[in-house]
Design goal:
Elements (H helix, E strand, L loop, with lengths): L1 H55 L5 H15 L2 E12 L3 E12 L2 H12 L6 E9 L13 E12 L1
Antiparallel strand pairs: 1-2, 2-4, 3-4
Helix pairs in contact: 2-3
């Protein structure tokens, strides 16, 4: 009876050690899978950000640019005189399109607000060049401040 009991104890210990080793291997696999799923989740987030950037850097037609500039001008009290398409420069990764816009503003503050709203617009617009000329009008004997004639070179970037 003692031999059978000892044999049963050895068999039980052997089975226990085998199951314990399998449990350790399963825990390691589980940890690896958790790490893989975290990497996959981060890749999904990065892919979403890339898609958002592609939307931001998508090709815009002149009509949508004019609409955006008109809305910004209305908000800031700027009068748009003209909009002309400018040059288009092609690089290996993107295309840089520019256009020239002539505006008339009552003050430098309004011009600053306009430029700020253009550069902070949801689509990417870069103000690259500004030419300012003050048109002085004499309403009486004294010179008074008149409108400020400004031309701006604004560019957009499109990913290829």
């Amino acid at each position: 009876n003692a031999g059978v009991i000892l044999l049963a104890i050895f068999v039980t210990l052997y089975i226990y050690s085998m199951q314990n080793q399998q449990l350790i291997v399963l825990r390691e696999r589980k940890n690896e899978e958790i790490k893989k799923s975290k990497v996959i989740e981060s890749l999904i987030k990065v892919e979403g950000k890339i898609n958002n950037y592609k939307k931001t850097f998508s090709r815009k037609d002149l009509g949508s640019i004019i609409d955006a500039m008109t809305n910004i001008a209305k908000d800031t009290g700027v009068k748009i005189i003209s909009v002309k398409p400018g040059t288009e420069q092609q690089y290996t990764e993107y295309i840089k399109s520019s256009f020239l816009i002539a505006v008339k503003v009552a003050s430098y503050h309004a011009l600053g607000q306009f430029i700020s709203k253009v550069e902070n617009y949801k689509d990417l617009f870069l103000v690259e060049d500004i030419n300012i000329a003050t048109a002085i009008s004499a309403q009486s004997d004294k010179n008074t401040e008149g409108d400020i004639d400004t031309s701006l070179k604004i560019s957009t970037i499109t990913c290829l």
